[in-house]
Each structure stands twice: as structure tokens, then as C-alpha cells.
Amino acid sequence: MGFVFNYALNYTALLAGREPRRPLFASWYVTHRCPLDCIYCSDGEGQPFHAEKTEELSTEDGKRLVSLIRKSTTVFDVTGGEPMVREDLEELLRHAKAQGLTTILNTKGIGIGERPELVESCDVLVLSVETLEVDKLAGIIRRPRETAQKLLQALEDGLRLTRARKKKMVVSLVAMPGNLDDIGPVLRWCLQHGAVFQIAPQMVGMLPPKELYANPRYQRAMDEVIEAKVRTNLVVGAMGYLKNLRELKSARCTPLLLADIRPDGGLYYPCIELKYFRQNVLAHGGIDAAQRASARDFGPVPTDCGERCQIFCHMALSMAQGSLVAGLAELKTI
User: Fold this and answer.
1) At the topology level of CATH, where does 3-333 sit?
2) 134-141 vs 145-164: helix axis angle to the nearest 10?
3) pTM of the entire predicted model
4) Which of 68, 132, 187, 320 is found 20 to 30 A from 221 (Cα to Cα)?
5) pLDDT digit string (tens) for 242-262?
6) Helix (H) or strand (E) holding 134
């Protein structure tokens, strides 16, 4: 099933008052391991992902999982933890491309310059950075200054590699009380270099920090992001999502648009924040069957999550799915 086909089925379901269930994206957390200790990293319960020691699929089982994902969607996001700690990442991405998947690699990118095949084997490279100031970045990742310098070097290397291969590069920023003055410079770096900008607020558990609510510095930064969205195609996220983000307002979430999969193949249901993952995609032979089994065990998808979980992967997808105009516009940025 392709992105457009699934989008159409979901849109029809929404018009009929039903919960959309076709995944637009599948996101596989290939590992929870990470050499960094970013202050904002949270699994929905306030713990960093690397705190949970989770079994990882072998290369062959990982390739089987990728093939099963292809039966449900054509857009495949690889994330972590830090996915680049897996030495077989190139092989997994090559397999995804061979399956005809549009492949997105989410990484901090340290060392990407020495692993150019990773860029060769993905369609979109997403690099995460919260500031361009090296000392401040070192504090955010809780690692020495030299490590922060390597992270900033990854931006330059990623830009060079994606340009040479005509791939898309996205710079993803987590907005926190301590980096509000850094949002504008990172956004402007993206606009200057033709990279796509993505923003989401920090989550403390499942809620944004209280210091962001009605914060004029945060709102001014979001105004600059929204203005850039209006005049360029270099900001990802439906306009409704960005405006909601400015006010940190609640919105109806349709979490099944994103299939989140653990390192061991377990399917998070209905989303990673609610933490139900008893059913395994490999054991069930696909996302759809694992989702149906999860629904029988977990129950119906919540219809109102309030102001929690303002993260891009669920709220932005939900708002793009709910508006045909917004959804078609977002195709330009992915």
C-alpha cells in the first residue's frame, strides 16, 4: 500500500466518522543504544531511550521486518536511540531501497562523513541539532565540547553528501526553555543552505515544559517559523500544526497513521507514548495483523489526549491527514 493510497483510505474513514488505520509512515527504532545523553530525550515516561535495554533484531530479521513494512506503507523512517551505532545500518537501508521504500534516516549524524553509503541508501537525511553554539550544544548532549563539534560537523557533511546525491536534508530541532534564542539561527541556517527545517517541543513525560506555555520568546520564534512556512517550502509540518505548536493547544490525534516499531519488532499501540507493545510485527507477519491483535488486547484508540504529546510525528501527521489541502501541500516537503 502506498502513501497516497493510504492517505485516501484514511481520508474516507475520517469523512465517515471512523478512526483512520492505514499507516502513512512506519518508524523502526532499530536500537535504543546511543553514545549521547541529550537532556530532552524521553520515551513518554520521562526516561531516555538508552535507559531501556532492549533486544535488537538481527540483520536478517531486520530485513524481514522491512519487507513486512513494505506491505503496509511505502514510507519508512529509521530512528533510535542512535541508529548509526548499528554496523549493519547500510545493509538494512539498501534492503529498504530494494523493496521500493521511501527511506528516511533520523540521526545525530556524528561520523556521517565517513559513512557516505548511508546517504546513498536513503531518500531523506534528518539530522537533529538544537543550537549552532558548540559549548551550549555540549551541555544539551551532555558530552565534551569535541563531541559537540563533531555533531556540528555532521551538518556540513550531511549537506555536502545530500547535495552531491540530490537527496533531501532535514534539520530537526527540539524547542526547550534553554534554546529558544537558538531556533531562529538554526531556521535561518536551513533557509540559507536549502535544508528543510522541522521543529517540535520538548516533552517532559507526555507534556511540553510549563515554561513554554504563553512564553513570548517561544511564540516569537514560532512566528518566524510560521512566516518561513508561508514564503518557502523549507519548513515541514502543516500550517495548522505550526499554529497549534505556537500556542501548545490540543488537537485530535489519529495515532495509527504512524506505525512505531521497537528494536525487537514489537508494535507500539496505539503510539509509543502509551507504551503497549505486546504484539510483534514479525510474529504476526505484518503491521496490520499486529495492529488488530493489539486492538483486541488494548481496546479502542483514545479519542482525546488533551494537550499532551505535541510531537511532530503524531500531531503533524494527524493535522495533515485531516485536511486534504494541507496533506497535498506537505507532499512538497517529504
Assistant:
1) TIM Barrel (3.20.20)
2) 100
3) 0.92
4) 320
5) 998 899 887 777 888 889 999
6) helix 134-141
